[in-house]
Structure formats: structure tokens, C-alpha cells
Amino acid sequence: MDAPAQSANSIAGREIVIKRVFDAPRELVWAAWTDSGHIMQWWGPAGFNNETCESDLRVGGRFHLEMRAPDGKVYPCIGTFREIVESERIVYEGEAAEGHPCGAGIPPRATVTVSFAEQAGKTLLTLHTRFASEERKQAASAARFVVSWEDALGRLADTLHT
């Protein structure tokens, strides 16, 4: 069972940091985060579905996911991998296109760093998003960026135990 009480969020300046501990080994959490088939099952808030996911997991490779909302609207999530350290860290850069301020998880022109830390058989996942400006962070926050990621991480926890 995951420990949401051990989760913490921090919002300051141009940054938002979301942390969650998963009751699963780091390699399993890494696999769920990097395998397109797994990503399709959990990425996005409750009620959303993913129609496509392409993940070219290499520096300079592209991540592209199409997320469909319950009202039918499609939200693209597009980024480029800037750094990959197997089982430890992934850095994405959101594409320049403006689109939705949340970017379906990778906001436009934002840098998103996902860290995976081993903690006695559990995994501390830290999602650190640095926005291009404080105004862009505020727009993403108003569009439920943190709430959406908390939902997605809950869905990720569920998929880790199925």
C-alpha cells in the first residue's frame, strides 16, 4: 500500500515539486514510468484515457502522448528527453507550442525532472517542474496541474499493484 501521507508538494517561484512514496521497488516504478504500454494505463487524471504514447527513451528522443478528457477533448503531452540516468532520473523539456498551460503533464517550455530514490524497498518519486516564468506556473496551477499529477500518481500506484 502506498503512503500518500508521506507525499509532499512544494510550490515556490517558478517551480512545483510533487513527491510520493510508492510501495514498490525502484526498478518497477522506473519500468512503469518509461514503458509506453504501462504509461498508457496511468498517465493523467482520473477519468482521462490515453489514446497513443510514443516514448523514444534516449537523450534527444521525443515523448508524445495524447490524453482524452471525459468531455472528449484531446490534450497532447509533448517533450524531449534531455537527460536519462537509468532507474534514477529523467529530464524532459516541454515543447515550445503554447497549447494548454499544463501540457498534459509536461508544460510548454518547462523543464520536468523525475527522480526515483530507493527507500528500504520503496521508491520516493520526486516530480520537479521548472516553468518558463512564474506566470506560466500560475496558469498551470489554475488549470489544476498539481491536482492532476496527484491523480496520475494515484493511478500509477494502482497499476504497480495489479
Automatic annotation (TrEMBL):
Database matches in InterPro entries: ASHA1/2-like_C, START-like_dom_sf
SUPFAM superfamilies the UniProt entry points to: Bet v1-like
Domain Activator of Hsp90 ATPase homologue 1/2-like C-terminal: 23-160
Pfam name, any one: AHSA1
Family per similarity comment: Belongs to the AHA1 family.
Protein's recorded name: Activator of Hsp90 ATPase homologue 1/2-like C-terminal domain-containing protein
Annotated source species: Sideroxyarcus emersonii
Organism lineage string: Bacteria, Pseudomonadati, Pseudomonadota, Betaproteobacteria, Nitrosomonadales
